[in-house]
Design a protein that fits this description.
Strand order of the largest sheet: 1-2
Oligomer: single chain
Strand content: under 5%
Order of helices and strands: HHHHHHHHEE
Number of strands: 2
Radius of gyration: 22 Å
Largest sheet: 2 strands, antiparallel
Distance between the termini: 65 Å
Shape: elongated
Helix content: over 70%
Structural class: mainly alpha
Length: about 170
């Protein structure tokens, strides 16, 4: 099989697979191109043609991983993502009031993970909890916060369980 046949068979599927991960058309095109350069170089080494699809997608996954590693080098942990999270969270209708109503242990975990931007395993280590416990606290906290946003601010849940709607809250007027 030649590279052109591989591209015709998997090119579109691979592009949309990559685009779903990076959410940027230009970057997806670059990663797709890099993937096909490697596919072209290494296609003669493929021993089992029945494993072609998996092999092609593994190359794309490796290119995605390389892209994200490179991107991580340019963004420091205390960069704009944390500032954007803080601005977004503090701008939410009644968020601070709802956070104050959470149990102290819940509030601490949510602030560390979603406001400060720490990884869940880091929060578990910092607070002396198991990772499973941190995940359970996050799940319970999200459920409580969703309930409060629905009851107070008249948000609704979409089919994916995400809060949607416009703020319609007596506290925010």
């Amino acid at each position: 099989m030649q590279t052109q046949e591989v591209y015709q068979t998997y090119g579109n599927t691979l592009y949309f697979f990559i685009l779903k991960k990076v959410k940027d058309k230009e970057v997806a095109n670059d990663i797709l191109q890099n993937s096909f350069v490697k596919i072209h170089k290494n296609l003669p080494q493929l021993k089992n043609a029945q494993k072609l699809r998996g092999w092609v997608f593994q190359i794309a996954r490796n290119e995605l991983a390389n892209y994200f590693v490179e991107e991580a080098r340019y963004v420091s942990p205390n960069d704009t993502n944390v500032q954007a999270n803080e601005a977004y969270v503090s701008g939410c209708c009644c968020f601070d009031r709802f956070m104050d109503q959470l149990p102290k242990s819940y509030k601490e975990v949510i602030q560390l993970v979603y406001v400060k931007g720490d990884k869940q395993h880091e929060v578990a280590k910092t607070l002396g909890l198991s990772l499973a416990n941190v995940k359970a606290i996050i799940r319970k906290s999200k459920a409580l916060l969703k309930e409060q946003f629905i009851n107070c601010c008249n948000y609704t849940l979409n089919s994916k369980g995400k809060l949607v709607g416009e703020v319609d809250c007596a506290h925010c007027e």
